[in-house]
Amino acid sequence: MSTSSPATAAITGVGAVAPGRTGRDAFWELLAAGRTATRTISSFDPAPFRSRVAAECEFDSAAVADTWLRDADRANQLAVTAATEAWHDAGIRTTPGRIGVVVGSAVGCTVALEREYVRLSERGSRWLVDLEPASGRLHDHLVPSSIVRDVAWSLGAEGPCRLVSNGCTSGLDVARHGLQMLHGFDLDAVVVVGADAPISPITVACFDAIKATSPNNDDPAHASRPFDRDRDGFVLGEGAAALVLEMPHRAEDRAADLYGRLLAAHSRANAYHMTGLRTDGREMAEAIRAALEASELDPDEIDYVNAHGSGTKQNDRHETAAVKTALGARARSVPMSSIKSMIGHSLGAIGTLELAACALMLRHQFIVPTANYQTPDSECDLDYVPETGRAARIRALISVGSGFGGFQSAVALAHDGGRA
Amino acid sequence: MTAVVTGIGVWTSAGKGLDEFWKTVSASTVTLSELTRFDHSTYPFTLAGQLRDHGATGIPSRLIAQTDVWTRQGLEESLLALDDAALDLAAVAEYDAGIALASSAGGVEFGQREISALWAQGPQHVSAYQSIAWFYAATTGQTSIHHRIRGQCDAVVAEGAGGLDALAVADQALADGTSSIMLCGGTDSALSPYGMVCQWSSGLLSGQTDHEKAYRPFHEKADGWVPGEGGAVLVAETPAAASARSAEPYGSLEGFGASFDPPPESDRSSSLPTAIDQALTQAQVRPGEVDVVFADAAAVPDWDRAEAESLARVFGSRAVPVTAPKSGYGRLYSGGGAVDTATALLAMRYGVLPPTPNAPSAHPLLDLVCDAREGKFTTALVVARGHGGFNSAVVLKAGANTKR
């Protein structure tokens, strides 16, 4: 291991298309107020499904002005919109070859892939699908790397570009890939994006089949209840977020306004089950421990934990145990909240939306709450910042994620003034 | 880059395992064949590089229902690789082994079946395994679980360039101390009717019916690639880890580069030379020291032109042997870069450059390998490109155990 100071990045731009209104400011207003954007699904008739609740973005795909992008999948549109906002926010001037892009997405372009399949197969009745009315963009929907291409083209990026598809940790893992890409290629900027638009019949059906999503259809605004005793599954969401990562010394040289610093990101796998979690949370604890070690942070310097907090019975228990193991006594006093209570779980996008929320929390020195938290659970006994946000000194924080495949990730961020 | 490759698991229509695969590609035998997965008679495509005996694998039977064929390929390739490396993962410290596998299209056939079930029969007919079988991380996740690998695990997507990007991710994990052993590479299969229709819609596939002459990279009659399924998983280790267990590496990953092309309407040329330059620079290798280039060789005229011009720009015209055995077994998308890396390591070990089936006998910019060439080869460059504009390049060096 290197003994020099750890490779970090300055966060100089943030963009978001979250459930509710589009844009970083609307995202922050929703979170800071503790409002929820979970509603009955409106993008298709959810009547045949077990879970009919989702957190939808007020983003009109049909109104996208650029014709190329209008014909792309909704995930591509959300990604480009968030990336463009972050890029303008950062205001970097550089050459195309010195810009890299990392996109995280769990399910890619499934809305278009399913829509076109239904059309070409006569509603699933023909295995030998029609070729003739097939869109020339079908291949783009088959390969989610088309999202990376659309982001790269919209930003004019010609450096290294890739998509990371680690299921529900994708959005956090883009931070790890972005940090490595920034330093490994000595780039001026890496734009990391998380994007998923999974609110489609097949994705709703696949989570119905394993009862992972909330059936609380009668009270959609309060259906996502992380850490609450009465939680009954996650609420599917959609969205995209982007962060611009810059070499710290270059951001300093141009006197850029920093949201904070990305210190480290680590991932582990439980090698246990594709969807099941053991209660002890040991691999997530190990990811947190590794992120703290690489950040040269003690648990006592962590002033906030952004939880995965999906609202499934097993996740919230697993995660609580992991944080206790990794942070020791500090776990009892550190605030820990889940924004999935407000904007649902947008699979590969949510991790980046959470990092965007963390960047905004660092800037505003304000911790957003876990909405809908009302009834304590004896297995989830930490400070989950119930329903109301609070001003707080945040020097450093960690954001954690857990996903299908057994993947566990932790990312450490710090306030700009929090470290030398 | 400092990682050494100590095990290779390859599975393509050209063969399963190193011996069969090497025998086929070094003899320039074409293994493309008429599609047998479904009745293709109403479609304009006929050929693919299909795996034989897809079902006969070392995968536990309970996993068959839970996985797409693509995931079973990846698992099988990982078993072959670990066997070839003679590596006992149980002897590796708990978080020291990781995975970086590329996919370009996920579990296509599984997904097609479940979307059909949903729309033709209703939500209650969707498999409980759809959520874990179709998504792009399925193969990485199942590989982690099967081998009890608890370190850093990634699924990388960059269409045809992803297989090399996964090697770069693995190399980084080894270089920064995150892992001491990485399973890395890529594999793909998208040969269901919908998978093929999606691919065909790109306008980049060949519609030829003569399997011997369908995939003709750098040829004046090139009209697209023929898709295949399969890929390769490599065991990459830190030199210290390999040496501690007296493993004999095939060779080492010495340098990596990646870039993205400008949009087609741009007047700027492909950024592929940048990716190659980066890989050479990182490897501290001069262009004249490269003994062979494994080309992306899409057989799409525009792509071939850009690649030939890029190689000529870096190396000079016809200055280095260029080969693309993939025209014999198909374009494997994320499997392609991984298989080419495996083939390059074998070529250096055996002192034989495998040829490019259907390559033109003369090319103004490239010295194409039309017949197997013998010699001493110690440095290779592998190029992989992905639809949309992905360019990746890896420089390899031979291990000590090379012939000649």
What does this structure look like?
The complex is a heterodimer of chains A (420) and B (404). Chain A contains 13 helices and 15 strands. The longest helix of chain A is centred in the N-terminal third of the chain and has 17 residues, at 74-90. In chain A, helix 10 packs across helix 11. In chain A, the strands form 3 sheets. Chain A has a 10-stranded mixed beta sheet with strand order 5-4-6-8-1-9-15-14-10-11, sandwiched between helices. A 3-stranded mixed beta sheet of chain A has the order 2-3-7, with no helix packed on it. The model of chain A has no long low-confidence stretch (mean pLDDT 96). By secondary structure, chain A is an alpha/beta fold. Chain A has one domain (9-109, 144-418): 3-Layer(aba) Sandwich (Peroxisomal Thiolase, Chain A, domain 1), CATH 3.40.47. In chain A, a hairpin with a 3-residue loop joins strand 14 (396-403) and strand 15 (407-414). Chain B is of the alpha/beta class. Chain B folds into 2 domains: 4-244, 3-Layer(aba) Sandwich (Peroxisomal Thiolase, Chain A, domain 1), CATH 3.40.47; 254-397, 3-Layer(aba) Sandwich (Peroxisomal Thiolase, Chain A, domain 1). Chain B has helices at residues 18-26, 69-85, 108-121, 130-133, 138-147, 162-175, 193-200, 239-244, 272-283, 301-315, 334-350; strands at residues 4-12, 15-16, 33-34, 47-48, 97-102, 153-157, 181-188, 230-237, 251-260, 292-294, 321-323, 352-353, 367-368, 373-374, 379-386, 390-398. In chain B, the strands form 3 sheets. In chain B, strands 1, 2, 5, 6, 7, 8, 9, 10, 11, 13, 15 and 16 form a 12-stranded mixed beta sheet that branches. A two-stranded antiparallel ribbon of chain B has the order 3-4. In chain B, helix 9 (272-283) runs parallel beside helix 10. The longest helix of chain B is centred in the first third of the chain and has 17 residues, at 69-85. Chain B is globular, with a radius of gyration of 20 Å. Strand 5 (161-164) of chain A pairs antiparallel with strand 6 (153-157) of chain B, so a sheet runs across the interface.
